[in-house]
């Protein structure tokens, strides 16, 4: 049977990974971290719903890179370095001192931007991975027993959002069937009313279901198949913690460093699969 | 029992007691209080809804007056009308365990019980699947499992099969039947589709108009009940000494019957819809549907029904008519025009589609306003929609909120809105969901009159009884492919899963409806 992974594991992993990347501060580590994270996510396996969440994170990261590089090319302070190509300079009013549109695009300028944005993309993907590998319901169940009620309530709220999106698209289609193109502010009333009514009805159903199943009626709820932190979890996480907090890795030759880093990134695979 | 803001007595002076291991069916017209009776039994009414209740209800010796529904959850389990709305977790196993977690059962006992229930409801294969990716029948089973895992003595189910295709319904009902006979569970079920459940039922609680109710042996109640499945109507027509509850009983009781000439209804009107080699794919929040290489022609004056399992592509086919399904290849023509090139206003003059949730179409706060808006939207003469609605529904109340209408009236309102645009084709997606026999009969006569006006009617449904009464032609879909089509008679009698009850009662006689059967029995 597949080993159960503690719901907080991937969140901690993402946190220490990002910390390590900030300390290492090099593009190649960031890029490697991105690839390793994507590999981990697919090796640990996702359900279709969760895969959608991860794809969203990937798309967000790509968007971030795209926007940052666009800015790097068109706007920015002049920087020394090899000029790759030159864009026509656009005159801006006097009060915008220091901002320049167009001009020389240098390698230096691009690489600084790339360093920044690759870290940012790695951050989005690392936490996107954590979010998609552990469902919100599970992580909230892992919180202390006294907060069980709060946990369930929050989990319910998070699972209701996709349902709301689904009913908006369904009602939008229904309005289209009445010959109404559903765009603009006016359409919001036509869509909003049925959606609100439906979500109200749904909440009532849910409340009835919770009540009928004894939610809140008993003082001491118990935990089904609680997953514990064990040695394997620690083995999987410790190298990364070490890297993030203690050892900046730069003291060993750089060709070895990247190899070492790759090993660390794959440690969850060895310890937890 | 009286609800807040209402003067109507839902249940009046009702007394009954149920024994262990009984299978009880609650019947009555829509909106008469079937759900209320179920919810009274676990205290959701009046604890959750408010209202005035007089009298005493005890379940396993505990009074619902003193205890909240949650404190009864270990003796009564309830499965609501839309189980998907009541789910708390994403994964099947967690959902089942949730009930036990709230009850504070110890982890080791919990583990054992979850495994038992998974086996009992044949869910072991699905244990780590996401609930939203399951089919309707599977979701229904998960909901039953989540209620059963607390080991209640009584299980209440509100219309468990109304959204299911015949095969999935059979699956759920036979599991319920096994629970009753093996575990001695008491099951109380409210259901419109009596033909599906009566064979399993011991006693029936019939709720009448005035809030009066009678509980009796299934046979006795059905002998006189105004609500009756086709088989019971047949027994009455054939003057059987005892009402037949199963097809076998009926076949035994009835002697030889004449062969009936199949009704011939080849329609030769102009082609209103023609679909050529259509392939479409469609992914929504929950699942993936597709059509592959499908060709179909629908003529004016024709009633065509599309049948198939849940997820076979029925809805996608209807959506492709209005350009809502992304077409990969092939063409759809509405009177020779491509729906994708028509504007919204032009489209509604070609096809009026009533979606699965008819209430999605309704946005206003009263029937009159709803109709006025429809007149405006559809560029019709003011008052036209309301006129159609009142003629079809025979309901004069125009200031009532659409949400307060019964399911049947809501459907008729949505249909009237679409009709006022004067479309050449009317398409309906699962129109009989939640309708009782009376509302269904009304719908049948309305749709027949629409077809008589030389419009084409297209229905996606798995209600075989409706198809038998109504359709000229049946199209079967499976996994997005058209697997067979033909005249209703041949199509329905040749498929065992989709044969209506009447056809099963007279095998090989070509009889599909109660009306035909009564003719055959007379001569």
What is this structure's SSE topology?
The complex is a heterodimer of chains A (273) and B (523).
Chain A: H1 9-24, H2 27-44, H3 48-74, E1 83-90, E2 101-106, H4 107-133, H5 136-141, H6 148-177, H7 186-212, H8 231-245, H9 254-265, H10 267-272
Antiparallel strand pairs in A: 1-2
Helix pairs in contact in A: 1-4, 1-8, 2-4, 2-9, 3-4, 6-7
Chain B: E1 23-27, H1 34-41, H2 44-47, E2 58-59, E3 62-63, E4 76-79, H3 83-86, H4 92-103, H5 107-120, H6 136-148, E5 154-158, H7 166-183, E6 186-190, H8 194-197, E7 203-207, E8 213-217, H9 218-224, H10 230-237, H11 247-253, E9 271-283, E10 288-299, E11 303-307, H12 314-321, E12 327-334, H13 344-347, E13 351-354, H14 367-377, H15 384-393, H16 407-419, E14 425-429, H17 437-452, E15 456-460, H18 464-470, E16 473-478, E17 481-487, H19 488-494, H20 501-505, H21 514-522
Parallel strand pairs in B: 1-6, 1-7, 4-5, 5-6, 11-15, 11-16, 13-14, 14-15
Antiparallel strand pairs in B: 2-3, 7-8, 9-10, 9-12, 16-17
